Amino acid sequence: MLLPENTKCECGHQNGVGTILCESCGKPLDPELAKSNEVLEMRYDGVARPSQKANPNFIDKIWNFFSSVKVAIYLIIITLVLVIPGAIIQQANTFLSVNFDPSTYYKETYGTLGHLLYLFGFHNTFESWWFKTLLVLIAASLVICSIDRVIPLYRALNKQQISKHLSFLKRQKVVYSGALPVSQEGFVEQFRQVLRKKKYRVHSNGQALLAEKYRFSRWGPYINHIGLIVILLTLVFRSFPSLHMDDYVKIVDGDTVPITNTNFYVKSEGFNIVYYENEELPENLQDEVRIKAFETDVVLYECISYCDDVTQKPELKPLMEHKILVNSPLSYKGFRLHQFDYDLTPRLNAVSPSIVDKVTGETYGPFYLSMFDPEQYYEVGPYSLTIIAKYLDFTIDSSGEPTTLSNNPNAPAFIFNIKGPGFAESGENYIYFPLEKDKVRFAQDSINRDLSDLIDIRVLDMEDVQFSKATTYLNVRYDPVVKYLLIGAFICMLGLTMGSYWNHRRIWLRIDEQTITIAAHTNKNWFAMRQELATCLKQVDIDVDQKDLDNGGNKT
Amino acid sequence: MKLMDVSTFSFTLAFVLYCSSFGLYCVAVGGKRWSNRDAKLHEKKWTKIAFIAAVIGLVAQLTSFVTRWVETGHIPNSNLYEYITLFALFTMLAFFIIHFIYKKPLLGMFALPLTIIMIGYASVFDTGVQPLIPQLQSHWLKIHVSLAALGEAFFAVGFAAGLMYLLRTVDFTSKEKHLVRQQRIIEFVLVSIIIVCGFIISAFVFKGLGYSASFEHESARVDLSGQLISQTVVVEYTMPPIFEPYNATQLHMDKFMGLTKAPFETPEWFGGANAGRKLNTVIWSIITGLLVYGIIRLIIRKPLGRFINPFLDGIDEHDLDEISYRAIVIGFPIFTLGALIFAAIWAEKAWGRFWNWDPKETWALITWLFYSAYLHFRLSRGWQGKPSAWLAVIGFIIVLFTLVGVNLLVAGMHSYAGVQ
Fold first, then answer.
1. Cis peptide leading into residue A241 (ω within 30°)
2. Measured between alpha carbons, how far is residue A466 from residues A351, A356, A370, A390 in Å?
3. Whole-angstrom Cα distance, residue B121 to residue B404?
4. What is the DSSP letter of A224?
5. Are residues B120 and B42 in the same domain?
6. Does B158 contact A at CB distance below 8 Å?
7. pLDDT tops 50 at residue B198
8. Cβ contacts of residue A519 below 8 Å, gap of 6+?
9. Which residue ranges in chain A fall short of pLDDT 70?
10. What distance in Å separates residue B389's CA from the closest CA in chain A?
C-alpha cells in the first residue's frame, strides 16, 4: 500500500506517516480505503507503528525485522520443533556415570535415527549454542514487538476524541443505526445512565458519546512480555556458574563430611526407608511392601576454626537439625540439601575382637579396632599387638604384593606384630581379616601358618561389630537468582490474567439530525460485546437482536 | 455402605448419565427432521433435558471425586486412572463455564463424547487406590496437577468447538482438490477418535473373557550409571498376541480363534520397555476401531464427516470460532500457572531444580509454545475461522501426547504416574 503523502486529515489533525485512521476523528486517510465500505482494521486504532518508517536505515531494518509478529511466530515454532527431539531422546547430562559414551549410546538405544540426532547435537539440546541463540532471538523479538506496539496503542487510547467521523462508526464490526426515539439531549443522557450502570466510563458532549471500560486489559500482553523478559534475562544471568551451586555429597550413616566450596559440614544421623503400615494400606494391598518415605536425619555444621588445617580437627558449630524428605529439603539461608539417592550396602566401621589362646582355650579382650582410625598399639591379656600394615580393600597385586583397591572397607585386613606366649621374642607377623568371608577367601590360616595354631582373633558376639547401615546421597543446591524467576513468573501471570479475563470495550454514539449511529469495538469476544450492547439498547427501548448488530468483518 | 462404594457407585452413575446425555443430544439434533414437530421447539426441549442429565452427571462425578479423596486421604489425581478421570471432570466443568457464557447447548454434543471416551480410557488402567509414593507427598500435588488438568480441559473444549467448526464449515459435497483433502483429514481425526474407542472396547472385551498369554525374553538396558544390566523379563499379554515380543519364547497362550502361536514378531527397532505388548495393543485398537468404523459406514452409507455436517446446519460458525478461541484464552493462563509455573516451584522444592528438561516438562513447554503461537496467529486476520480451528485440533493432539503419550512412550521423572 502506498502511503499518502499528505497525512493531514480534513478535521485538521496532523498525523504521522503510516497512519491509517486519523488519530483524532478516525476517518480513513488512505483514499482507496476511504472509498470502500469494508469493516475497518482497528489495530492500534490505525496509529502508525514506529517500524513503519518511510526510509528505514540499517538499524531500522533490524528493528523492523524483530517487530514483526510473523517473525515472532516463526521463532516460537522453530523453538517448538527443535525442542521435540530433546524431549524424546534422553539428554546426555542426565547420565551421572563417567562410563557413559554418547557416541555409542544413542546408536544402541535409539538406532540410526538416534545416532543422527546425536550427531546434530540433540543429545544436549538445552545446553547447545543454537538453543541459547534462539532464546536470545525470542527475547529480542519480545522486547521490540512490544515496544513497537505499545507506543501507538498508548497514543491511540490516551487522546481519544468523543466525536468520531461517521464513516469510522459505520465501518465498525458492531453497528446500530436507527431513528432518534426521543430528543437528542434526552437520548444521550439516557444512554449515558445505562452505560454507567454497566461500569463504562462515559464521556459525552451532548450530541456524541464515548463509553469505555477495562482499558487495562490492553496492557496485559505487554506486562506478560515484561515478565517473560525478566525470566529470560535471569536465565542468561544465571548461566554464569559462580551464581549457583549444584553438587552432590555422599554421607555414610554417622559420618560428618565437609561440603565442597562452602564452610559447611553435614552429619548424617542415618538414612531410613519408611514403609506403609497395613492399616494405612487399602484392603487389596495388605502386606505389600510400599515405600512411604526416604528420609535422612542430618545436622548442619559451620566450621569456625582449623577449617583448612589438615593437621587439626576442625572445630564445628551446629547450625540446625533436619529430617530431609523428598519434599522437604534442609534449607539454611538459601542453601539447600535435597534427598537425591541412597545405597543400602552396609559399611564396616569397627570390630571388637577377642584373642583366643588355642593352647589353653582362654579368651582375652575384646579390644576395639576401628577401620579408619585404629590405635597403633594394643595390649590384650598377655599379648601385645602393633599394627604393621592396614588394607581396607585387600587384594594381591600382579607382583604378588598385598595392596588395597580403595579406601572403602570392603575387605579390610590388618597385619599385626604380635608378642606373647608362644610367639618369638621379637614378635611375629600375623594377618587378620575381620570379615569371615575374607578369612576364607584369602586363606588367613594358611598365610599365618603355624601361628594359627597358637591363637585365633575373632569376634565373639554380633554386638562387637559396628557398621553403618546405609549411605545417603544429597544434592547440594544454592540458587539465589530463582527469586527473580518467581518475580518474572508473577508479572507474567499478572499480564496474562489482565489480558485474558477482561476485554477492552468501547461504544461510540453519534447523532446526525434524526439518526443515531452506535458502534462498538472490543479487542476480543465479539459475541459478548454484541450481547452487552443489545442489552443496553433494550434499556433505552430499542429492541434489537445481538445477531443484527453484527456488521460483518468476522469472516475470513 | 462404605465411602469407597459410594464413590464407585456415583462414578458409574455419572458415566451412565453422561452417556444418556449424549444420546439425548443426538435426539435433539437428529430428531429435528422427524415429521409432525416444530424443529426449533423440539431441539430446545431435548437439549434442555440432555443438559440437565449432564449437570446431574457432573454432580455425581464430583461426589465420586470427593468421597474418594476423603476415603484415601489424598487428592485422587496421583496415577493415570485418577488423573484422566479428573481431566474428564474438568472438561465437563469447562464445558459448563463456556455454556454459561454462550448458551450454546449443542457444544455438549461434542464435549460429552470427549468426556465419555476419557472416562472409558481411564478405566482401562488400574482403578485401585494406591498409597502416595514419597515424591508425591506435597501440597503441590493438589495445586500443580489439578490446575494443569483444568487448563487442558479448556483446551479440550476449544478442540470440541474447533472440530465442530470444521464439521460445520467444510464443504463435504465438493470434489475440489483442497476441499477433498480437508474432508479426508477430518475423517482421519474422527477415525482416530474411534480407534481410541477401539482400544477401550478391546481392552474390556478381552478383560471380560479373561484372556491371557505370556512371553519371556532377555532384556538388556543401560542404567543411569551407564552399566549394562541384563535380565529375563516375563511379559504378560491381556490381548491375544498378534505380535509377540522381539526374540521371545512363549510361556503360555490361551487359544484364540484357532491360533496357538503369535503370527508375527515385533521388529527389533521397535524399542522401549514392553514394546511388543504396546505394539500388540495398538494393532488391536486399530482393528477394533476400524471394525466399528466399518459398521458405522455400513449403516450411514457415507463418510462420517458428511453424515454429521447437515446436523450442524443453523449453528453460527462465527460463534463456534469465538467459543473455541475463548475456551483456549481462558485455559491458557491456567495452564501456564499450573503446568509450568507451579510445576517449576514444586520441582525446585522436590528435586532441587526448577527445570529439569524432563520429557513431561518439555512437552508441557511444547504445548505452551504451541498455544502461544495460536494466540499470536489469531492476531493476524487470515488466521481466524478455519485455520484457527485446525490449530485448536492439532493443539489438543499435542495435549493428549503430553498427558498420555509421554507416560507410555518416553521414560522420565514423571514415569511413576504411568501404567502398571
1. no
2. 6, 21, 9, 18
3. 10
4. H
5. yes
6. no
7. yes
8. A168, A169, A170, A172, A174, A175, A176, A507, A508
9. 1-6, 94-99, 553-556
10. 12
- Do B14 and B141 reside in the same domain of the chain? yes
Does the pLDDT value for residue B138 go beyond 50? yes
**Judgement on whether residues B311 and B297 belong to the same structural domain of the protein:** no
C-alpha cell at B231: 535380565
d(CA A374, CA A386): 11
Distances (CA, A) of A522 to A147, A527, B413: 22, 10, 44
Alpha-carbon gap, residue B309 to B164, rounded angstroms: 9
Q: Give B236-293 pLDDT, tens digit per residue.
A: 888 888 888 887 888 888 888 877 888 888 877 665 667 788 888 888 999 999 999 9
Residue B62 covered by a domain: yes
Residue type, B306: R
Q: Which residues of A494-522 are buried (b: 16+ CB within 10 A; e: fewer)?
A: bbbbbbbebbbbbbbbbbeeeebbbbbbb
Range of the domain at B272: 195-302
Residues whose CB is less than 8 angstroms from the CB of residue A73 and which lie 6 or more positions away in sequence, other chains included: B373, B376, B377
Q: For residue A129, give every residue at least 6 positions away whose Cβ sits within 8 Å of its Cβ, in sequence order, or none.
A: none
pLDDT tens readout for residues B73-115 = 888 888 888 999 999 999 999 999 999 888 877 788 889 999 9
Is A326–B350 a contact, with Cβ atoms under 8 angstroms apart?
yes
For residue B74, the chain A residue with the least C-alpha distance is A280
Give the A:B interface size as CB pairs under 8 Å: 162
Going by C-alpha positions, the residue among A270, A391, A372 that lies closest to residue A321 is A270
- In order of A15, A28, A41, B360, the CA distances from A4 in angstroms are 11, 11, 17, 53
Q: Which of B159, B184, B163 is nearest to B172 (CA)?
A: B184
Nearest to A528 by CA among B100, B343, B277, B414: B100
> Quick check: is B391 in a domain?
yes
Would the CB atoms of B224 and A492 count as touching at under 8 Å? Answer: no
Q: What is the pLDDT of residues B21-34, one digit of tens each?
A: 999 988 888 777 77
Q: What is the model's pLDDT at position B395? A: 95
Partner-chain residue, chosen from A97, A111, A524, that has the shortest CB–CB distance to B224: A97
Q: Is the ipTM value over 0.90, yes or no? A: no
Chain B nearest CA to A160, separation (Å): 23
Tell me whether residues A110 and B271 touch, CB distance under 8 A: yes
Above pLDDT 70, what percent of chain B?
A: 91
Structural domain contains residue B188? no
CB atoms within 10 A of CB B330: 23
